[in-house]
């Protein structure tokens, strides 16, 4: 189910204000140094960059609804704009400079709007659309938007003293077209290649002090595998794939890379009064919230998979086998088995006014069952409320 909207539609305006408030609040939560995600392998700091991409995307879409004939929101599942809008952002970003070159500048359009109002005593709808179109292309050209696939970056290198291998922390992003959700992946990868061992390690087997590497590094740190890893990330980032499947595929495709840990953060669904329809109980309560900017609830899920052992490589005259990881799946937890993960956490972020409405309804335990609940109060986030 999608929503057909117009530029003056109050519901659409409230939707964009609500999602902006939600992403701003999530950024506050993640940037606080006592956040568990912030402290864990820099995941919080990584996520902050992807949240900025989402905010740039929504800034662009907010202008797009003023000139586009139709703008669709996935009301029944994720609460995000549909995947086609993400594809359009990606395409428009590439042609933005050319499109802008053929448009009047913003100052001229604003002057023309004033003149039109003074002379004709009417609202300059056509000029407003032209200005919105210009602002849209300016946003997609200068801001990093959330693309269908965001290429990997390496943000850290260190050494595992047990295996004497260097390891990287690498992240990438994807907007899944089926689930209609933005996702972020963070991987810890050991590298057993002789090339990178010589480059990164000193004679004592520790990371060399004089490394001339400026992080973040675009792509995987190992240049021999970087392009192949980009292709892998693009083809193996679907929401429909479990983490264990992705890690096993990576383990098989890269003989010299050893995935020791893989994390996926799924940013959504998003619930907004008057727009989304995938949480009947939630949205009915949110409808009672006076301030529409506070009538939302954002959820996210953190999935984690880690290796518990490695089967050593076997080298023989007639055949050989690469090293393989054995991953821990918590078989005592049926949801972990279903997701193919070692562990997972569900989080919910909600404004204080909306939380009060949920609490007053008597549905708090039902709605937040299984979630770590965080309440936004001003410019603070109260954790595990």
Q: How would you describe this protein?
A:
With about 375 residues, the protein is of the alpha+beta class. The protein folds into 2 domains: about 10-140, no CATH class; about 150-380, no CATH class. About 40% of the residues lie in helices and about 25% in strands. The chain has 13 helices and 13 strands. The strands form 2 sheets. Strands 1, 2, 3, 5, 6, 7, 10, 11, 12 and 13 form a 10-stranded mixed beta sheet that branches. α3 (about 45-65) packs antiparallel against α6 (about 125-140). About 40% of the residues are buried.
Please outline the helices and strands.
Blueprint: H1 10-31, H2 36-39, H3 43-64, H4 83-101, H5 106-120, H6 125-142, E1 149-160, E2 165-176, E3 181-191, H7 194-200, E4 217-218, H8 226-235, H9 243-253, E5 257-266, E6 270-272, H10 280-286, E7 296-311, E8 314-315, E9 320-321, E10 324-327, H11 334-339, E11 343-351, H12 352-361, H13 364-367, E12 371-377, E13 380-382
Parallel strand pairs: 11-12
Antiparallel strand pairs: 1-2, 2-3, 3-5, 5-7, 6-7, 7-10, 7-11, 8-9, 12-13
- Provide mean pLDDT, rounded: 90
Number of domains: 2
How can the largest sheet be summarized? 10 strands, mixed
Termini gap:
33 Å
Total of helices: 13
Q: In which range does the helix fraction lie?
A: 40-55%
Note the run of SSEs as H and E. Answer: HHHHHHEEEHEHHEEHEEEEHEHHEE
Low-pLDDT runs: 1-8
List keywords for this structure.
two-stranded antiparallel sheet; 385 residues; globular; 2 domains; 10-stranded mixed beta sheet; alpha+beta
């Amino acid at each position: 189910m999608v929503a057909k909207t117009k530029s003056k539609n109050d519901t659409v305006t409230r939707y964009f204000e609500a999602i902006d408030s939600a992403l701003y609040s999530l950024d506050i939560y993640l940037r606080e140094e006592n956040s568990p995600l912030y402290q864990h392998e820099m995941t919080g700091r990584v996520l902050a960059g992807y949240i900025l991409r989402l905010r740039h995307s929504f800034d662009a879409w907010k202008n797009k609804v003023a000139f586009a004939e139709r703008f669709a929101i996935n009301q029944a599942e994720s609460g995000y704009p549909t995947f086609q809008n993400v594809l359009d952002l990606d395409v428009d970003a590439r042609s933005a400079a050319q499109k802008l070159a053929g448009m009047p500048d913003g100052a001229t359009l604003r002057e023309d709007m004033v003149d039109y109002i003074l002379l004709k005593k009417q609202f300059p709808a056509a000029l407003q659309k032209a200005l919105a179109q210009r602002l849209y292309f300016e946003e997609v050209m200068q801001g990093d938007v959330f693309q269908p696939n965001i290429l990997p970056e390496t943000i850290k290198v260190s050494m595992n003293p047990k295996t004497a291998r260097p390891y990287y922390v690498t992240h990438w992003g994807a907007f899944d077209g089926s689930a209609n959700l933005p996702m972020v992946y963070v991987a810890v990868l050991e590298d057993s290649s002789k090339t990178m061992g010589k480059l990164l390690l000193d004679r004592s087997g520790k990371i060399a002090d004089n490394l001339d590497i400026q992080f973040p590094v675009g792509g995987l740190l190992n240049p021999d595998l970087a392009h192949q890893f980009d292709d892998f990330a693009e083809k193996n980032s679907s929401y429909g794939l479990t983490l264990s499947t992705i890690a096993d595929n990576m383990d098989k495709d890269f003989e010299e890379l050893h995935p020791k840990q893989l994390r996926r953060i799924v940013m959504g669904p998003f619930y907004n009064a008057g727009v989304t329809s995938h949480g009947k109980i939630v949205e009915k309560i949110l409808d009672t919230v006076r301030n529409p900017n506070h009538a939302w609830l954002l959820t996210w899920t953190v999935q984690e998979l880690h290796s518990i052992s490695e089967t050593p490589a076997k080298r023989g005259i007639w055949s050989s086998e690469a090293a393989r990881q054995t991953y821990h799946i918590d078989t005592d937890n049926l949801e972990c088995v279903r997701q193919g993960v070692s562990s997972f956490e569900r989080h919910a972020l909600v404004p204080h006014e909306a939380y009060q409405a949920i609490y007053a309804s008597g549905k708090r335990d039902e709605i937040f069952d299984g979630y770590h609940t965080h309440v936004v109060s001003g410019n603070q986030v109260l954790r595990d409320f």
